[in-house]
Design brief:
The chain has 832 residues and is an alpha/beta fold. The chain folds into 4 domains: 4-243, Rossmann fold, CATH 3.40.50; 261-341, Serine Threonine Protein Phosphatase 5, Tetratricopeptide repeat; 348-487, DNA Cyclobutane Dipyrimidine Photolyase, subunit A, domain 3, CATH 1.10.579; 527-612 and 675-776, Alpha-Beta Complex (Polyamine Oxidase, Chain A, domain 2). The chain is 38% helix and 16% strand. The chain contains 31 helices and 26 strands. Helix 5 (98-118) links the parallel strand 3 and strand 4. Helix 14 packs across helix 20, helix 19 crosses helix 20 (439-447) and helix 26 (653-660) runs antiparallel to helix 27 (665-671). The longest helix is centred in the middle third of the chain and has 23 residues, at 319-341. The model is unreliable at 1-21 (pLDDT under 50).
Length: 832
């Protein structure tokens, strides 16, 4: 390896156009191989009072051949200052999930180990409850220079600009991703052949560059006044850390693709030695699992050096290596350079004009179907090849590139226009793919709609002149059944058998998330139908939502499902006439947010969630005990309900506490912290509508807290049905009263509210909810004991809303999937 002193004399090719380099870059004596990669953001002068050089490691999570880290170390040496590496993992990154967070943190752990060995100080901040705030802003105030790695897509580009405005000194963005630095390519190219021809000589020269190894030694520097408590990944289990973050817990880690430089280079070495020679022949066959390198997640997160991989591929030689290099340094860098120069790379406005025009011209063409987001996300379209491809994304976080091209074009058939097609492709790719949000991702998705391509005549329906590539054509050259079996397998080597007790929203969300990841799960519920407090009671020709009356969606993690359910006709907004009744007045109430209801009943969501899950109704779980296989569940007569590795209690907190009992006393005690109010509900039906000037009302007088004309909700049929719900205090005081007495009392109370004698109902009944509304939640998303393999979830963990139940169930599934993916359980090392 060359020394740093020797590198100071390295000169770049005179054939490559040079951009002006900041005087500070010159003054720090960076070798040209580093200096040509530096983009100075903003115009701040050096901060002479700075205490250190700060390197914000955000996209190049490696030490090996990292130009950004090298630049920071050299600049710090020139300034006679220490260097400090800040690693941050944020909740607010688009599509943040257990999958992405786990991969990043595994990479951060690898990087921290190497930095420690080199004597370079670092600290990791993970955004979560109790650990939020702007730590980077505080660190930059005391930095003489801030260095970070170049990432030319949003929101990273926007964050860089904001950082430069707030920093006390200059900010350098250093290209650690491309063999030929993006800033040296003068423009974005529309065709690969043009980019290849224009940049081949410059790339070829840099292909043989040998990068320096950072010198070891010294005492790691960490600022004494860190504005956050750093996370030590040697002491904290990554699944526990991820579970504490407000991110998407329905997208699980992928244990066969662990993050980190060690795992990335191990994968590369195996591919280089065993499969690279056949890459040109095998790369288009999705059934040859190791026919491609599967390095894209490691390249996206900068956990492996593209320079080293390119150099070693060239040294390997042969047709396979040549084709691999063309993909790595031509197509990949074409994409990165385009994003660097084009701010419209993340939308259809970035497509070629001919593609935009032809797609717009065929926007009105009939579509074979319009699928909702959830139908596509879960791979339930009915197109066998497409669904298998989506399962690859959903379960394994990857999609074979040859299949991706077909997958993306099919989305246009199922969306009303190119804009919505683009949004769906971006969401499905970025949410599930470990390499999502990469510049290469935008290019690959754009290719499906004409990017980097030419018009193809004759015009066709929907696609116009965009190159056709149908799933039916692709299926003729691929064994779809074999491909579906491969992509539909669990990502886990040893998937646990899971039992969920309770078929309410929380339990079903947990179970369906597990089932979608190919984890065997069984749901038990004592009721006649799924839904819990979203159940519907039917009697005498009437239907009553006798539990939850409506729900709202405030959290984006829940809202996307709500929007999809609306598209599928499962729910609808309730735009009725609402009132608020006090002792003095009856006034209109305008809801501050959309009130959603299930169609045709509130149990529509539960039935939907249960559709693809093994749900066993009318089964009461009375006891659970330890057995050799894990947990043994028993019914009332001691009947064996089966043995399971993991048990989830998705029932009200008091029931969960009793059920967990001796099995998990700590969790049982935690569950007792939740307080739930009871609620008496009365259901009344009439043959003629009551002359009441509202459809629903909240009451602050008398025994009633809520009254609603159930038939006024969208999608309801039948006579005039009403639901009356008593206040928590009244319900508690009359909890053991006779049902008929309660029904009569609340019915008379309604008459007093409306001010006239009501006609006799043709149906009148009361239902007692002992555990109805959460008065005091536990304050965590779910409860889980990984050693015992037992957990609990429900709205009582978070809040008194259906949304809280959904999020708690999702968090519970995330805990199970994160625990199941642990290397010790999977029989692998911590690096994979």
């Amino acid at each position: 390896m060359p020394t740093f002193d020797g590198l100071r004399n390295v000169m770049s090719s005179p054939d490559v156009p040079r951009l002006p380099i900041d005087l500070l870059v010159v003054a720090t004596g960076l070798p040209s191989m580093i200096a040509e990669r530096v983009r100075v953001v903003g115009d701040r002068p050096a901060n002479v009072d700075g205490a250190y050089v700060l390197y914000w490691m955000r996209q190049a999570w490696r030490i090996d051949e990292n130009p950004a880290l090298i630049a920071a170390v050299l600049a710090a040496r020139t300034m006679d200052l220490p260097v400090f590496v800040y690693q941050g993992v944020a909740e607010r990154v688009p599509f943040a999930s257990d999958r992405h967070h786990t991969f990043i943190l595994e990479g951060a752990r690898d990087a921290a180990r190497t930095l420690r060995a080199l004597g370079i100080g670092s600290a990791l901040h993970v955004e979560r409850d109790g650990h939020r705030g702007p730590p980077l802003a505080h660190l930059t105030e005391r930095a003489a220079l801030v260095v970070t790695d170049e990432m030319p897509v949003q929101p990273w580009h926007r964050w860089t600009e904001r950082l430069a405005r707030r920093a006390s000194g200059p900010v350098w963005c250093v290209d650690a991703a491309c063999l030929l630095p993006m800033r040296l390519v003068p423009k974005a190219y529309d065709r690969a052949f043009a980019f290849r021809r224009a940049t081949a000589a410059a790339r070829e020269e840099r292909l043989s560059t040998t990068w320096p190894a950072l010198p070891a030694g010294g005492t790691p520097f960490v600022p004494a006044d860190l504005p956050f408590e750093p996370v030590d990944l040697e002491r904290v289990a990554i699944p526990d850390l991820v579970a504490a973050c407000d991110i998407d817990h329905t997208v699980a880690p992928v244990p066969h693709t662990p993050g980190g430089s060690s795992a990335g280079y191990r994968r590369w070495t195996a591919f280089r030695d065993d499969r690279l020679a056949r890459y040109a022949q095998d790369r288009n066959n999705a059934l040859i699992a190791d026919g491609v390198s599967r390095l894209s997640p490691y390249l996206h997160w900068g956990q492996v050096s593209p320079f080293r991989i390119a150099r070693e591929a060239r040294a390997h030689g042969g047709d396979g290596a040549d084709k691999f290099l063309d993909e790595l340094v031509t197509w990949r860098e074409l994409s990165w350079t385009r994003c660097f120069h084009r701010t419209d790379h993340d939308g259809v406005e970035g497509l070629p004009g001919w593609a935009r025009n032809t797609l717009a011209g065929h926007q009105a063409d009939p579509r074979p179907a319009l699928h909702s987001w959830e139908t596509m996300a879960r791979g339930r379209t009915g197109d066998a090849l497409w669904d298998a491809a989506q399962k690859s994304l959903l379960i394994h976080g990857e999609l074979h590139n040859n299949v991706r091209m077909t997958w993306g074009k099919a989305v246009l058939d199922w969306t009303p226009d190119a804009e919505s097609c683009w949004r769906h492709m971006v969401d499905l790719n970025h949410r599930y793919a470990l390499d999502g949000q990469d510049p290469n991702s935008y290019a690959g998705l754009g290719w499906c709609l004409g990017l980097f391509d030419r018009p193809f005549a004759p015009e066709r329906p929907i696609l116009g002149e965009v190159r056709p590539r149908t799933t039916s054509d692709h299926a003729r050259r691929l064994d779809v059944g074999a491909y579906a079996r491969w992509t539909g397998r669990p990502a886990l080597r040893n998937p646990p058998r899971v039992a969920v007790i309770g078929a309410g929203i929380a339990g079903l969300t947990c179970a369906r998330t597990l089932a979608d990841h190919a984890v065997p799960v069984t749901v038990f519920d004592k009721g006649r139908g799924p839904g819990g407090r979203t159940s519907v009671r039917r009697a005498d020709g009437f239907a009553f939502d006798h539990g939850a009356q409506y729900f709202t969606a405030r959290d984006d993690r829940f809202r996307r499902h709500v929007e999809s359910w609306q598209a599928d006709g499962l729910i609808a907004p309730w735009t009725g006439r609402f009132a608020r009744i006090t002792a003095d007045d009856i006034c209109d109430e305008v809801p501050g947010e959309t009130r959603w209801v299930g169609v045709p009943g509130m149990n529509a969501m539960a039935r939907h969630l249960a559709r693809d899950v093994d749900v066993r109704l009318g089964v009461r779980v009375e006891d659970l005990s330890r057995c050799e296989a894990g947990w043994r569940l028993s019914g009332p007569d001691g009947h064996n309900l089966g043995s399971f590795d993991v048990l989830v209690a998705a029932v009200p907190a008091p029931q969960a506490s009793v059920l967990l009992g001796q099995a998990a006393p700590v969790l049982a005690e935690q569950a007792t912290a939740a307080a739930l109010d009871p609620c008496w509900t009365v259901m009344a039906g009439f043959t003629e509508p009551l002359p009441v000037p509202f459809d629903a009302a909240t009451l602050q007088i008398g025994p009633l807290a809520w009254i609603a004309r159930n038939g006024a909700k969208p999608g309801r049929n039948g006579g005039d049905s009403w639901v009356l719900q008593a206040s928590p205090d009244w319900s508690a005081q009359h909890l053991e009263d006779d049902r008929a007495d309660v029904a009569e009392a609340l019915w008379l109370a309604l008459g007093e509210v409306v001010g006239y004698v009501l006609p006799s109902p043709v149906h009148l009944a009361a239902h007692r909810w002992r555990h109805a509304r959460v008065a005091q939640p536990v304050g965590v998303a779910c409860l889980f004991d990984p050693e015992a393999g037992i957990g609990a979830c429900g709205d009582w963990c978070l809040d008194a809303r259906i949304e809280a139940a959904f999020l708690s169930g999702a968090a519970m599934a995330g805990r199970v999937l994160g625990w199941a993916a642990l290397p010790a359980r999977e029989g692998t090392t911590d690096a994979g």
